[in-house]
Every structure is written in structure tokens, then in C-alpha cells.
Write a structure and sequence with these properties.
Elements (H helix, E strand, L loop, with lengths): L6 H6 L20 H10 L2 H6 L1 H15 L3 E3 L6 H5 L5 E3 L3 E3 L5 H5 L6 H18 L5 E7 L1 H10 L7 H9 L1 H25 L3 E6 L7 H22 L5 E5 L9 H5 L3 E3 L6 H10 L2 E5 L1 H6 L1 H15 L4 E5 L9 H11 L5
Parallel strand pairs: 1-4, 4-5, 5-6, 6-7, 7-8, 8-9
Antiparallel strand pairs: 2-3
Helix pairs in contact: 2-4, 4-7, 7-10, 8-9, 8-10, 9-10, 10-11, 13-15, 15-16
The structure holds coproporphyrinogen III (CP3).
The site of coproporphyrinogen III (CP3) has 22 residues, from strand 3 and strand 4.
């Protein structure tokens, strides 16, 4: 099947597909018993990401179970700092950790061996394209420079990204340099994913919501635009979804400013505003992941509201953020069936 027939690519090209195609952020993960089994076999989380046999398997698990319209490469946004030699670790119960970086560290960041380090991820993409059903879109991804930088500065996740915000106010030049470098390495990485068989890519700016207007423009929108311009200059026709979580009203001209083909929306974006954004181009989202945990009426009402308000334009149905480990896999079955208009 040619790429143009894949439903998600049709939406990314601006067409309305009914019912809308669906995939879920973090669709491969701990809510699935088969993921937990492979994860235990793989050892550490990064071993899972860097071993194509395991990474291909967990990418395919939610496709087999639910027949989603897209598979998303199984990896993590923090493989980029890992490939920049920041010593990333995922320890049980602690979330991600790495060596925190300062202004000197930023000046000395070395990109040698970057793509060689990420070669197992690229091999995973190649194998996935061969193993996926022809109708399934393969999505590659990376983290946006701002979001990746927040982890690099603090050395771990924080609730409000205070360390990165403080660093950016104190040393904006060093911070700009870090974001430029991350943008350029991210573009290289995404182009390699596209060459290996990714149909489209998503760029996750999960921490966009902690910035004021000027900082959002400088630290989120501009680096996102830089990556997208670079990817599209190198691979004309590449399709990009930009997801700036928590950006709210700042999403108003985000698609035009970044050059993204579609924008991802979190669940706090009002559907009336989402419908305005959709007049300009495709949108993706935005069911509250807690509705999938709740199930029943809460799930059904949330789905119906999105289909009612956004289902008549170019929409990729998704959650407003990643599915959580507490979600019941049966509720995901119900979600997919309802979006596809299937009766129980
Ligand atoms: C901020 C961020 C990260 N990683 C990611 C983001 C952006 C999206 C978002 O905001 O959720 C993106 C990501 N992480 C993962 C994927 C795989 C593909 C998919 O969506 O199925 C993707 C696209 C796997 C993962 N990445 C991680 C897991 C869980 C690790 C495990 O299995 O032990 C998975 C399945 C670990 C991870 N990775 C990260 C954190 C903060 C954590 C720990 C929190 C947690 O445990 O959920 C960084």
C-alpha cells in the first residue's frame, strides 16, 4: 500500500477522514501486561530502547491488540541527551536521571558519535516498517529542545521546571546555544528516522505549559520551527505533528509559526478553541487520559464530545497526554470501538 493511502497521512495532508484515525500517546507501556513481560526480559528501560528485537516487539503489541492507525516507535525523548553523553539512567521509582549540565558543560557538549549511538533505534524503525501492516502509519518522534533541556539542566524531572527557567533567565545566551544544538541534533535524528521508514514524526514539547508568552516564543516556538524547517528542507514532503502541552491560548498561531502540519492538543484546550484552530489545519487529541482510567460514561461522554466538535474536520483522535499505567486495557478496546462507530 502506498503511503498516501494511510489514513493518518491523509489527515496530515489536510483531509477529513470519517471516522477519524486513532492512536494513543504512550500506547506501548505499563498498562499492557505483554509490555510488562517484555520489559522484565529486557532488563533496564534503556536496554529495551536500544535492543531492536525488544523495541520492535513492544511497538507492535498495541497494534496487534487494538489495530491502531499508527504505531509509534518505541524509544524515549531522553535518548538524545544519552547520545550526547549525559549518562541517562532510569531507576525504578525515580523517573529519569542524568548528569546535570551547566554553562561550561553546554559549551563543551560534543556531538561526535551521536548517530552511531542511536543506530539501534534507527534499526528498530527499519524493521518496524517491514513488519507493520501496510495500512498502519509509522510515527517517529523526538522531544522538543525546551522539554529535553529541562531534564538536562535539572538532571531529573521536576514539577515546574524551575531549574531550567532560572537558568534561562540568568544565562539566556548559553541556553539559546543549548536549544540550537538540540534542535540541530533532533533534525538529524528525525531525518534518519524518516529515511529508515517513518511516515511522519511527532515532536513532544511536554513542558511548554510552564513558560510565559515571550519565553514560550523564544524557547518553544523558535526551536520547534528550526527543527521543522531543517527536516523539511532536507526531506521535502516530510510530515510533522507538533505537541506543545499546556500552551493554551499560545497555540493560536503556533501552527503557522512552527510550520507543523498538525498540532497536538492536551485535554485542557477547550473544544470551541480547538475547532477554531482546526479551521487552519489538522488537530490531534485531546481526551483526558483519566477518562480512560474511569471508563464507562466518563469515557463515552468524552469521546462523543470530541467527535461532535472536531469530527467534521481533519482530526487524528488521541489522548491529551500519555495513557497512564492504571488504565484498564479493556477500556482502550471500548475507546477504539466507539471512535470507529462500532456497536458492542
Ligand atoms: C517527557 C517524556 C519522556 N518520554 C517521552 C516524553 C514526552 C511525552 C510525555 O510527556 O509523556 C516520550 C515517550 N516515552 C515513551 C514513548 C514510547 C512510545 C509510545 O508512546 O508508546 C514516548 C513517545 C516510552 C516510555 N518512557 C518511559 C516509560 C516507562 C518506563 C518503564 O517501562 O519503566 C515508557 C513506556 C519512562 C519515562 N520517560 C520520560 C519520563 C518522565 C519517564 C518516567 C515516567 C514514567 O515512568 O512514565 C521522559
Amino acid at each position: 500500500m502506498s503511503g498516501s493511502e494511510r489514513k493518518i497521512l491523509e489527515v496530515l495532508n489536510g483531509r477529513t477522514v470519517t471516522p477519524p484515525p486513532i492512536w494513543l500517546m504512550r500506547q506501548a507501556g505499563r498498562y499492557l501486561p505483554e509490555y510488562r513481560k517484555t520489559r522484565a526480559e529486557a532488563g533496564s528501560f534503556l536496554d529495551l530502547c536500544y535492543t531492536p528485537d525488544f523495541a520492535v516487539e513492544v511497538t507492535l503489541q498495541p497494534i496487534r491488540r487494538y489495530g491502531f492507525d499508527a504505531a509509534i516507535l518505541f524509544s524515549d525523548i531522553l535518548v538524545i541527551p544519552d547520545a550526547l553523553k549525559r549518562n541517562v539512567r532510569f531507576t525504578e521509582g525515580h523517573g529519569p536521571q542524568m548528569d546535570p549540565i551547566d554553562a561550561d558543560g553546554i559549551r563543551n557538549l560534543a556531538a561526535d558519535g551521536f548517530m552511531a549511538h542511536l543506530e539501534p533505534v534507527i534499526e528498530t524503525v527499519r524493521r518496524l516498517r517491514r513488519e507493520l501492516p501496510g495500512e498502519t502509519t509509522l510515527l517517529g518522534f523526538c522531544g522538543a529542545p525546551w522539554t529535553v533541556a529541562t531534564y538536562m539542566i535539572a538532571g531529573h524531572g521536576t514539577p515546574d521546571q524551575a531549574p531550567a527557567r532560572l537558568f534561562a533567565y540568568r544565562d539566556p545566551e548559553a541556553f539559546d546555544h543549548l536549544l540550537d544544538l538540540l534542535a540541530d541534533m533532533s533534525a538529524t535524528y528525525l531525518v534518519a528516522q524518516i529515511d529508515a521508514g517513518a511516515d511522519a514524526v511527532q515532536i513532544f514539547d511536554s513542558w511548554a505549559g510552564v513558560l510565559g508568552e515571550e519565553e514560550f516564543d523564544r524557547y518553544c516556538t523558535r526551536p520547534m520551527a528550526r527543527i521543522i524547517a531543517s527536516v523539511k528542507a532536507q526531506r521535502p514532503g516530510a510530515r510533522v505533528i507538533a505537541f506543545a502541552k499546556g500552551a493554551g491560548l499560545l497555540l493560536k498561531d503556533y501552527r503557522q509559526k512552527t510550520g507543523a502540519d498538525a498540532i497536538g492538543l492536551d485535554w485542557t484546550v477547550p473544544l470551541s478553541f480547538a475547532a477554531e484552530l482546526q479551521k487552519d489545519g489538522p488537530v490531534q487529541g485531546n481526551l483526558d487520559p483519566m477518562r480512560v482510567v474511569a471508563g464507562g460514561r466518563a469515557l463515552e461522554e468524552g469521546i462523543d464530545r470530541i467527535l461532535d466538535k472536531l469530527g467534521h474536520g481533519p482530526l487524528i483522535f488521541n489522548l491529551g497526554h500519555g495513557i497512564t499505567p492504571q488504565a484498564d486495557p479493556e477500556n482502550v478496546t471500548a475507546l477504539v470501538r466507539r471512535v470507529r462507530g462500532m456497536k458492542d
